[in-house]
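Hey, can you fold this one?
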Amino acid sequence: MRDHLSTALYLAEAGVPPLPLRAGKLPFGNCSACAKNACGGRPNMKTPGPCTCPNPCHGWAAATTDPGVINSPTWARAWREAAAVAYHPGGADLTVVDLDNPEAIAWARASLPATRTVPTTRGEHWLYLGAMQGANSVRPGVDIKSTMAYARWLGPGTGTMAALPDVVRALTVKEPTPRPSSVTVPALAGGGECPHRTPTYLDRGIAMAEHRITVARAAVHATVYRTFLAVLSTHGRCGCLTEAHTARLFTAAQAKGETVRHCTDAWTNALTTLGL
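Sure. Predicted structure:
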């Protein structure tokens, strides 16, 4: 117990939120008051502490840097029974690329920038500075542990930690499948020439729309819809938009966690709102 508790307090002091793991490298289950989210806690919430329960409930969301909570009597049983210590990488602005076998390690060495590494039972953890949405099985033998995920603490590792690269962020972006191949909209009233048909004007507008989606901190789905609406209200009636433009917008939205279906629905709703 003392070893795990001491490790947890050490991590908390360093700004890394820990949590206890039971046998099987699993978080402790919710207490009876929080079972099946009876307390109103949300397992998908993006910040720790889904309810006021003092127990280590709600999996990764129980991770905390508060030493008073970690060292409290309500956590004592969990530390007595703990088999290991984990941490919430996203809560410390970190991303762990979990490489589960030698083939995955070989891919990382050929594809990713060098960074701090931690040996694991079957492979390695590569740690980068910066958070993103966690995801499993982004490629064979590779998981991403960051926001809304936990990673087992196996030591500080070796090497200098690099900034989270775009190549890692891109691993969670699914290739869009069913999406509009192009936008078919009515011509300008009166058949006039399109005033937007210049690469600079249109590309600047698409770039601004991508940026608006990328920097969204909350209400991502609403931001995506409003951005699609703004693009279509400006360029939707003159036939400017092509498959390449819509792909850029969909890709930006998916990088923020939107699914292809959400993107398609938002685009269709924007078209409907504008009568297109």
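The beta strands are 18-22, 26-27, 84-87, 94-99, 116-119, 124-129, 135-139, 142-145, 151-152, 162-163. Let me know if you want another pass with a different chain boundary.
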